[in-house]
Write a structure and sequence with these properties.
The chain is an all-alpha fold and 483 residues long. Helices cover 64% and strands 1% of the residues. The radius of gyration is 22 Å and the shape is globular.
Length: 483
């Protein structure tokens, strides 16, 4: 383990992160709120900490190994979650405890969208912007950003990229150089953000709200500048714009890149995961719409259809925006939507969950085992995009799923041990581990009323979900520390 190299990179990344506190300071000046003072203190403290980490080892330039990459990623997301909480803890409005500030910070950076804050509408603009900015930075991964913009991280950049980027097919690169790959991802991400903000503004949002909501839409985060989320606007146009950009952001960004480079929609048409993604959303949407109409839950059929469409896309992609209290929908619908979040979005997107490609491979592996019972000697390959999938990929998916279930079970029992009821504990853990946000029961509106112990457990769950479990659990494996 190259501790000096890790320390140097961590210092650089912390220093870079401190720069992201400058926009909230400017927002505070512009709107005349006093919240910017907390950001000034936080900026100074984080920048000084980063520089102090970097200075003693600034001349050490060695090749970054894969193990070092895992340590950097886990340390950075953990440290960033803690340091990102500093301005929230120092701010007078909202007045948050250290635990609540860390929960809100990690929720933002992991694009979970779970909040402990009540009265979001009355928050200072600087705080509102900061919450949204955290999600935008976390959406594509601030480490991928660092690889893209810091030539100093060019050496060993692939190790950071592979350790941080979500999805089972993370070794594939869009371009020969990893820095160019990271830049390509961020160009697409930035373009989608600007387009989303523009359309929100055209539909009736203020420029400030349009920018803030574009951050949390494209990142599939779900934070809003209003307690009622997107439902605050009561605007069908805004809701449909959100649906479109949530759908786009839930797609593998590799497909966006190839579609843009070749000027063709063929990458979407021939991608198995993309088609499965749309099919799952369509089925959930139809079930919700038909049941709501059949139960006369809304007076107008168009309301039932629009609410079903929005909540299906929002929950299934793990965004977490709401236009209605879907937790109060009749019968099985709230649980159906929660289960849809387990599938989540596509690999290589900003969404959470198990990822569509993993669920698809698990399904096809199950079908293959049934066929093998009938034809024991048959060779039955599993294919994606008409190409056979290597057995090691299938094994990795099964290993991930088994680890996910075991981890989920352990954390669920831990949450229930803190005093949460079964519905609240299960939905809260599912919402945090899948980076969704809103849950059921006592956490349907916010997470402010649960115990501090439960909040810390959920913080771990959010990090596990964002780093796809293995990246975090690998550090506690004895094999990782053997020479």
């Amino acid at each position: 383990m190259q501790l000096a190299v890790i320390q140097r990179i961590l210092g650089i990344l912390l220093s870079v992160f401190s720069i992201t506190l400058l926009p909230p300071i400017l927002i505070g000046f512009w709107f005349g709120d006093s919240g910017f003072i907390a950001f000034v203190y936080a900026f100074t403290g984080i920048l000084v900490s980063g520089v102090l980490l970097w200075l003693p080892v600034r001349h050490i330039r060695r090749e970054l190994r894969l193990r070092d990459g895992f340590v950097v990623v886990v340390l950075f997301w953990t440290v960033l979650g803690l340091t990102g909480a500093v301005p929230l803890a120092l701010s007078d409005v909202p007045h948050l405890s250290f635990t609540d500030a860390v929960f809100e910070s990690i929720s933002g950076l992991t694009t979970t969208g779970a909040t402990v804050i009540v009265g979001i509408d009355s928050l200072p603009p600087s705080i509102l912007f900061y919450r949204q900015e955290l999600q935008w930075l976390g959406g594509m991964g601030i480490i991928v950003l660092a690889v893209a913009i810091l030539p100093i991280l060019g050496i060993g950049g692939m190790q950071l990229y592979r350790a941080e980027t979500p999805g089972p097919l993370k070794d594939s690169k869009l371009t020969p150089r990893i820095t160019e790959t990271a830049k390509a991802l961020w160009y697409i991400y930035l373009t989608l953000t600007i387009a989303c903000a523009f359309f929100y503004w055209l539909a009736g949002m203020t420029l400030f709200d349009a920018l803030c909501h574009s951050f949390s839409t494209v990142s599939i985060g779900g934070f809003s500048t209003h307690d009622a989320s997107i439902g605050h606007y009561n605007n069908a146009g805004i809701e449909l714009i959100a649906v479109v950009f949530m759908l786009i952001s839930g797609i593998n960004f590799t497909l966006h890149f190839h579609a843009w480079r070749h000027g063709s929609l063929k990458p979407y048409r021939y991608d198995t995961e993309f088609k499965a993604y749309l099919y799952i959303l369509l089925v959930v949407f139809i079930v919700c719409s038909v049941y709501l109409v059949e139960q006369d839950f809304y007076e107008d059929i168009s309301d039932a259809v629009l609410r079903s469409l929005f909540q299906t896309v929002s929950i299934a992609t793990t965004t977490g925006f709401t236009t209605t209290a879907y937790q109060g929908w009749p019968s099985f619908l709230p649980v159906l939507l929660l289960f849809a979040s387990f599938v989540g979005a596509c690999a290589g997107s900003t969404g959470g969950g198990l990822k569509v490609i993993r669920v698809l491979l698990l399904y096809r592996q199950g079908i293959r085992e049934i066929k093998r019972l009938i034809h024991p000697n048959a060779i039955i390959p599993i294919k994606l995009n008409k190409k056979p999938v290597q057995e090691r990929v299938i094994n990795a998916v099964w290993g991930f799923f088994a680890t996910y279930v075991a981890t989920f079970t352990f954390l669920l029992l831990s949450l229930m041990a803190t005093g949460l009821d079964q519905v609240t504990a299960f939905s809260a853990l599912a919402a945090c581990m899948n980076n969704l946000g809103p849950g059921l029961g006592a956490v349907s509106a916010h997470y402010g009323d649960i115990s501090n112990a439960a909040k810390w457990i959920l913080c771990v769950a959010m990090l596990l979900g964002r780093l796809e479990i293995f990246t975090l659990l690998v550090l506690i494996s004895p094999a990782f520390w053997r020479k």
